[in-house]
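Researcher: Re-running this chain for the archive, since the previous output was lost when a drive failed. Same request as before.
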Amino acid sequence: MGEEAALADPEVRAVYVASPVSRHQEQAIQGLRTGRAVLLEKPVAMNYGEAVSITEAAEQTGTLLGIAYFRRLFPKLIRAKELLAAGAIGTPVLAEACFHGWLESEERAWLRDPALAGGGPLYDTASHRIDALNFIFGAPQWATGLRTNPVHGLGVDEASSISILYGGGVQAQIDVRWNSGVRRDELRFTGTKGEIVLNDFNGPMLRLTNEQGTQEESLPSHPNVHYPLIENFVAAVLDGRAPVATPRDAIQTDWVTEQVMQASPALAEPQQ
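Model: Regenerated structure tokens:
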């Protein structure tokens, strides 16, 4: 069934937009304007302006729009948020995240095309980590960053470093790259009286170190990491609840990404 036929079918109540980022604005707004609830892949759009237009379309039509930031439902991230709110490490002052590895596989080669993807790991893997920190600390107040492409010579960034300032003076540093021979997937919160470490971020372990010593908890995610998000979205459609990642929350990541794109020097010309 094609797009037009699906949106004309009265049995279709919701659509999942998982196309390249360049098509998100068009397809999400089309779905919303036909009254279908939309679950939209991340990042929301190619830039912050497009992300705002999708959000406004949802608000104007009164139609449900959820964003697929599934890590908000990681039990260990929810637990970290609870611990931070309870003052388990004192006042949080620093958050550090990274996701390092080698170039994306050929099966996802569209991620290397700036016209389709917008950016490389900045858009692909940093977006999840920016959103996770927004989930913890709220809307970012300031952001900047640097993009480079020194090894593979792509048209998109192959490495990006991001700095964010949150309320209360919390600083965040995120580094993502496709040019590291060492795989890393780390998330750490430092406070005035301890730290919370979620390494690997996609794994089950949470380690809390504070004045009482060190404690570890195993909080595995669902075997299908996307299942809780789908369950949450279906419940939102059926029960009228807000999804875990609302559009106004989710587009804060697009705002951060845009600050990085504007602050960073132009990338080197792609290798021929």
